[in-house]
Amino acid sequence: MSSDFESYEQDFAVLTAEITGRIGKVPKLVGDEKKQMVANVEKQLEEARELLEQMELEVREIPPQSRGMYSSRMRSYKQEMGKLEADFKRSRIAYSDEVRNELLGDDGNSSENQRAHLLDNTERLERSSRRLEAGYQIAVETEQIGQEMLENLSHDREKIQRARERV
């Protein structure tokens, strides 16, 4: 049974290496080549998922005393699969952004200008927020000083009243 698992492991390693290479190529391709590459990567990802399922079935058949080692390997393979899917998703997003830019006639320069403008606005908002926070802090301090002055005046009034009563 473990030989089947090791065979699946080798297949999975080869397949993930191919997928990684193809994911790296996706942003560099254009047009139909890119569409075809995306479709191929999707097929390979599905094959990798099926291999993982087969490996899980093999792990279930392994005796409990040696199952722990294989289970930890499975967790790492699943994490690797998750990373591959995330990388593919990012490459597809980049691909869809390029398609959108082609369709809309966006040259990419305006998006850089928009980004710079948004960053400037964000900085301006942060400066304003800091000024408001400083103003609030001053108001709180002023209120505390005023409260202390009122308490002092109240104490002085009581002293004056007691002195008047004595006289």
CATH superfamily of the largest domain: t-snare proteins
Oligomer: single chain
Number of helices: 4
Number of domains: 2
Class from secondary-structure proportions = mainly alpha
Task: Look up the CATH topology of the largest domain.
Answer: Methane Monooxygenase Hydroxylase, Chain G, domain 1
CATH architecture of the largest domain: Up-down Bundle
| pLDDT averaged over residues | 83
Strand content: under 5%
Order of helices and strands: HHHH
Task: Give the helix/strand layout.
Layout: H1 2-25, H2 31-61, H3 64-104, H4 109-166
Helix pairs in contact: 1-2, 1-3, 2-3
Q: Can you put this structure into words, describing what you see?
A:
- With 167 residues, this protein is an all-alpha fold.
- The chain folds into two domains: 1-104, t-snare proteins (Methane Monooxygenase Hydroxylase, Chain G, domain 1, Up-down Bundle), CATH 1.20.58; 110-166.
- Helix content is 92%, strand content 0%.
- The protein is built from four helices and no strands.
- Helix 1 runs antiparallel to helix 2 (31-61) and helix 1 packs parallel to helix 3 (64-104).
- The longest helix has 58 residues, at 109-166.
- The N and C termini lie far apart (108 Å).
- The model has no long low-confidence stretch (mean pLDDT 83).
- This is Vesicle transport through interaction with t-SNAREs homolog 1A.
- Keywords: Coiled coil, Golgi apparatus, Membrane, Protein transport, Transmembrane, Transmembrane helix, Transport.
- It is found in: Endomembrane system; Golgi apparatus membrane.
- Residues 1-91 form the Vesicle transport v-SNARE N-terminal domain.
- It holds the Pfam family V-SNARE_C.
